[in-house]
Amino acid sequence: MRDALIDLGEVPADGPEEPSLPTAPVPYRWILGLLAVILLAVLGGAGPPPPPPPAPVVLPLALGESVHVVGDRLYVIGLSDPFGTVARTHTIRSYDLPGMNLLGTYTVPVTGDIFTVNDGGDGTLVVSYNDYEFGTPGTVAVRAGGGQPVWKRAVTVYGRSPDGGLLLASEEPEVRTEESRSVWHALDPRTGAVRWSVEQPENGQLAVESGYFWEGYPQFLYTLHGDGRLEARDGLTGAITATGRHRQPVGPGTSFQVAAGLLLIGRDTGEIVAYDERTLTERWRRDDPVLPEEGYQLDCGPVICAVAMQDGLVGIDPATGREIWRADPYDTSEVIGDRVLVSHSQEAEPVLDVLDPGTGRIVARIGAWVSGGPGPAPGTAYVHRIRRSDGSVRYGVLDLGTGRVRVTGAADRIAGDCQFGKGVLLCRRLDSSLAVWRL
């Protein structure tokens, strides 16, 4: 049986229009009216069409002010004061999502550009930035209302543990050399104290199970020593949970990655060995190159999706390492449920497709929509579509099984920078303000 390709379909928020019935002759209209009343009483009536989406919450923003969405928080980062200097101060406003209640206003002194913001718990905000003064990343924790920073460290924060008790951060050397090594710390978000650390081994590597673009917190960290020793560490305690040994030489050409329950160690010759992520026992090895030299791996359910920047998308059997299929290159690839959303998002007109990871075939072509991540129900994704000609946006829910988009709202005077958060859609408007629609 050949795979079917599903055509694009859009369903408006109030459903398709029903064809109108011809007008009844005048003598019988009173009969139809009586029947309509009886049916309305018996069936309870269909009621009026659903109301349009509520008006958005609008935050006035100036050009240059930025927006960060992290979980159920929205952070608005104000312009630096003074502008253009190394040492600067930003005002950050924190809102809850989807309620859009102001939680606090923070004054953050930094020496560079802010790139991540995290809730530190206990009323603190943890901000990482590019430290232009020392040439390394920096992180500072502050409380609402101003005052001195709670703590400050020369690290980059990558994530917060599910219970909120730890921050995972990396510390890079001030001067990069062949001998320099990074150190990963688990920090107390309230005090900045180091709970435990692991250093990149000499002549070795360190890998972290990071998920999709650093979504969530890693369950394990892995170290590969120059002599081939392997170690798996618990992401919460830092304790070694398993050990093993890699029999091949370890050097500058060694790749070290985690995907789909496997620890993948490759060489520039193309050889690759896969180990179980929990026990570090060898699962398979291959002499032919199956992973791209430049790219990353995604857990696509039945397969490993190897994303190559230039050579396309490759489906790899996690049980054997065998290449199952190869697809065209895409700008982005996102796993949602049992499907992979792939897109050419950098084109003048974005193109969104739905790929079956079991076969590598495109099963639905969605068109000029942009994915906003998992939707309100399993097997769905939020999507939006901006028409540049008139600055309008439509948004809705994509059914990954049918390839149809149910449009739930629309707006005009949109400049772009739309993104979905917890129960909301956020877009910058032509006047630079931020509009937030509740979904």
UniProtKB/TrEMBL annotation:
InterPro entries: PQQ_b-propeller_rpt, Quinoprotein_ADH-like_sf, WD40/YVTN_repeat-like_dom_sf. Residues 1-20 are annotated as: Disordered. This is PQQ-binding-like beta-propeller repeat protein.
